[in-house]
Amino acid sequence: AVLDNAWAVGRSGKLKDRYRQIVSLQTNGKDFDADIVYSADHIAGYIDTIAGQVSSEAVDADIRFDPAEEPMFTYTDEIYGRQVDIGSTMAVVRKKVKEKSWGEVALIVKEIKPGVLKEDLMPLSTSIVDFSTSIKGNTNNRANNVRQALANIDGHIVMPGETFSFNEVVGKRTKENGFLEAPIINSDKALVPGMGGGVCQASTTTYNAAIRAGMEIVERYHHSFPVGYISKGLDATVSWGTQDLKFKNTRETPVYIHTYYENYNVHVQIFGMPFPEEGQIKCWSEVTGTVAPPATIVRADQSGKYVKGPDQYIQYVEDRSGYKVTAYQGYYENGELVKKTVLNEDYYKPIQGIILCYPGEEHMDGNEVVTPLPH
């Protein structure tokens, strides 16, 4: 509009008037007022478009755990994000327009801090507990089963609020899954060959690591009778489809499980955020009562599976005393006991011994020397 008005000077009216206007322009010039009108919404939309090109999301630092690698823990650095403050930028634009201070306006950009920094993740590689049990003297099959079960756990991560299931992680005890036949506790309390025998030592080792790492035990069962590789009251038996070991990570950070074998010992190591004040959890148990077993009975082997002829006797089930046991969990800070709680109270029922004989010889009074059941 201003240019149109300027162009029109000296181009209309009588020739004499037009000439005077032109001479006046040559001598004095002529000013034209221009009213500046702007749309804040339009500018805001333009800035919004630029912001989409400039802004970026913050990226959290990450931790990767792979026990097969060295080191086991690797980290990805965090990336700070950027966000254009459209409101503050527009405030500067309006102020400059009002003051007629023309020129460039720098975008006001805020830095976005990632939610997780690398320095936050570094403590998660701290070993909270490293618990082990011995498999020295085990048969090759049993040792294989213990190590196979723990190998299936190696590298597992339990996130905050997540529940770990031993059966789910280890899988069904089958030959296809790497398990072999070894002694298991039968329903009649006899030790008989079974697929995956020895896996309970893996679950027990895992259980003891978990309670020392402060995990919340959701499901746990003790054996029919005490086992030799752990103190009474601190064992954890499992059976596919019926009995499981489950624990929940109640921490605000994940825990990482590493298992390994060294010098006839199987280890379960748990990494995570360390306890404050050099905190540590210790567990122990006390026998509070002993119950004698019933007298051994003699029973005919009607199946012929174990006793093959007359005058042969086999100790099918060993008589065992019963025990009442209380297990404790103690939390220590700087070497001092801060809190003591009862983990569980177990009762291992006494077990009646069973001697198998040839049918018709049930009168045997149990005093004769018997042949131990081969395993």
Fold and architecture overview:
The relative contact order is 0.11. Helix content is 23%, strand content 30%. The strands form seven sheets. Strands 5-13-12-6 form a four-stranded antiparallel beta sheet. It has helices spanning 2-8, 15-28, 40-54, 86-98, 118-121, 140-153, 166-170, 199-212; strands spanning 62-65, 73-76, 81-84, 109-112, 126-134, 157-158, 163-165, 181-185, 191-195, 216-219, 246-248, 255-262, 265-272, 280-291, 297-300, 314-317, 322-333, 336-348, 354-357, 371-372. The chain is α+β, with helices and mostly antiparallel strands. The protein is rod-shaped. Helix 3 (40-54) crosses helix 4 and helix 6 crosses helix 8 (199-212).
Summed up, what is this model?
This protein is an alpha+beta fold and 375 residues long. It is 23% helix and 30% strand. The longest helix is centred in the first third of the chain and has 15 residues, at 40-54.
Tally the beta strands. Answer: 20
C-alpha Rg (nearest Å): 40 Å
H/E element sequence: HHHEEEHEHEHEEHEEHEEEEEEEEEEE
- Helical residue percent band: 10-25%
Characterize the overall form: rod-shaped
Low-confidence stretches: none
